[in-house]
Amino acid sequence: MKELYNSYKKDVYFYILSLCKNPSLSEDLTSKTFYQVLLSLSSFKKIQI
C-alpha cells in the first residue's frame, strides 16, 4: 500500500485540486481516497485471483 500511495498521491492530489480549487480540501480528499482504497484492496485482490 505504501508503494501505491507514494506512486499516485501527487496525481490524485492534483486531480482533486483541479476539481475543487482548494488545497486544504484536496489534501483531505486525497487522504480519504487512499483510505477507501485501503478498505477495498482486499476485495479487489479476491477478484483478481
Give the tags.
49 residues, mainly alpha
Task: Please characterize this protein's 3D structure.
By secondary structure, this protein is mainly alpha-helical. 92% of the residues lie in helices and 0% in strands. The protein has helices at residues 2-20, 23-48. The model has no long low-confidence stretch (mean pLDDT 90).
Q: DSSP strand (E) fraction?
A: under 5%
N→C terminal distance: 18 Å
Low-confidence stretches: none
Q: Characterize the largest beta sheet: strand count, sense, and whether it forms a barrel.
A: none
Listing every helix as H and every strand as E from the N terminus to the C terminus, the arrangement reads: HH
Overall structural class, as computed from helix and strand content, comes to mainly alpha
In short:
The chain is mostly helical and 49 residues long.
Task: Detail the topology: elements first, then pairings.
Elements: H1 2-20, H2 23-48
Helix pairs in contact: 1-2
